[in-house]
């Protein structure tokens, strides 16, 4: 196999992507579909799932709330049955959570962020790992953290707490799963251009009582490259980590962020 060929995930990989109907997850699903993988997505947005499956014939998927264990169990069973096994798990699903001073954070919003961003990671991992151990195709897990999983993030404490926890979960599982030839890495996106980041900028501008334009400029000034990243940048990293070129990469927290210096 040539060096260039090693960079492309092999055709036929059996891939499950959570939060896979839009945003980062949707672009990752598109990328795997383009290289000939067998793709199963889940998402809480039924309309987005239908649109995704209609746009990419041969892709499979279902609606699920990743924070509900019974939903996760159902998705894992359906994906493994439909795909005929599992080689790659992309644990991508997550929400932005609330923005505000810690004393003003609604406990219900905190719990929802923990449930969606962190508990879901555990629910999928505990059910998927036995199937990944049985894979003969460079079994790989990508967990989606954030630049907020390596830096403090004022007024965004629920989100940051989950993203730091995901890195710790990944580091521990890399040690645990390595002897079974299952790799796991965390991807830490920076500021991803799109609707979700626009909402975060809007909410944080409100908390700090400044304009959205000023808030956006403040974010960009914290990035060495002075630009946001795209969903395609994140998808490319997920594909690389699932290729033969990454066969000895595990236990890593990999930032794709233009070098965010602080938040």
Can you say what the CATH homologous superfamily is?
NAD(P)-binding Rossmann-like Domain
**Element order, helices and strands?**
HEHEHEHEHEHEHHHE
Q: For the largest beta sheet, what order do the strands appear in spatially? A: 3-2-1-4-5-6-7
Q: What is the makeup of the main sheet?
A: 7 strands, parallel
CATH class: Alpha Beta
Structural class of the secondary structure composition? alpha/beta
Q: Taking Cα atoms only, what radius of gyration do you get, to the nearest Å?
A: 18 Å
The tally of strands reads: 7
Identify the CATH architecture. Answer: 3-Layer(aba) Sandwich
Number of domains: 1
CATH topology: Rossmann fold
What overall form do the CA principal axes indicate?
A: globular
The proportion of residues in beta strands is 5-15%
CA distance, first residue to last residue: 42 Å
Low-confidence stretches: none
Helical run tally: 9
Mean pLDDT, to the nearest integer, reads: 96
Which terms would index this structure?
263 residues, alpha/beta, Rossmann fold, seven-stranded parallel sheet, 9 helices, 7 strands
Gist of the model:
This protein is α/β, with parallel strands linked by helices and 263 residues long. It has helices at residues 3-6, 23-34, 46-55, 69-83, 107-133, 157-177, 195-208, 212-221, 231-241, and strands at 14-18, 38-43, 60-63, 88-91, 140-144, 183-189, 253-256. The longest helix is centred in the middle third of the chain and has 27 residues, at 107-133.
Write up this protein:
It is a single chain. With 263 residues, the protein is of the alpha/beta class. It is 47% helix and 13% strand. Strands 3-2-1-4-5-6-7 form a seven-stranded parallel β-sheet, sandwiched between helices. Helix 5 links the parallel strand 4 and strand 5. The radius of gyration is 18 Å and the shape is globular.
């Amino acid at each position: 196999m040539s060096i260039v060929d090693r960079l492309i995930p092999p055709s036929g990989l059996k891939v499950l992507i959570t939060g896979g109907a839009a945003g980062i997850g949707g672009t990752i699903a598109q990328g795997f579909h383009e290289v000939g993988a067998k793709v199963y997505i889940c998402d809480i947005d039924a309309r987005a799932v239908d649109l995704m499956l209609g746009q990419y014939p041969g892709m499979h998927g279902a609606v699920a709330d990743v924070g509900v264990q019974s939903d996760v169990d159902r998705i894992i069973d359906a994906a493994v049955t439909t795909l005929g096994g599992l080689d790659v798990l992309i644990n991508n699903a997550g929400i932005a959570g609330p923005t505000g001073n810690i004393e003003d954070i609604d406990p219900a919003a905190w719990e929802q962020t923990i449930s969606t961003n962190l508990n879901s990671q555990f629910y999928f991992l505990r059910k998927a790992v036995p199937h990944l151990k049985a894979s003969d195709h460079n079994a790989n897990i990508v967990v989606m953290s954030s630049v907020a999983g390596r830096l403090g993030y004022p007024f965004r404490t629920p989100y940051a707490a989950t993203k730091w926890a995901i890195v710790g979960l990944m580091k521990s599982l890399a040690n645990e799963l390595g002897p079974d030839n299952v790799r796991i890495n965390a991807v830490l996106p920076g500021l991803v251009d799109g609707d979700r980041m626009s909402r975060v900028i809007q909410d944080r501008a409100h908390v700090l009582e400044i304009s959205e334009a000023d808030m956006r400029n403040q974010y960009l000034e914290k990035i060495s490259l002075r630009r946001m990243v795209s969903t395609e940048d994140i998808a490319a990293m997920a594909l690389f980590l699932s290729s033969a070129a990454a066969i000895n990469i595990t236990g890593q927290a990999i930032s794709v962020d233009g070098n965010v210096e602080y938040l």
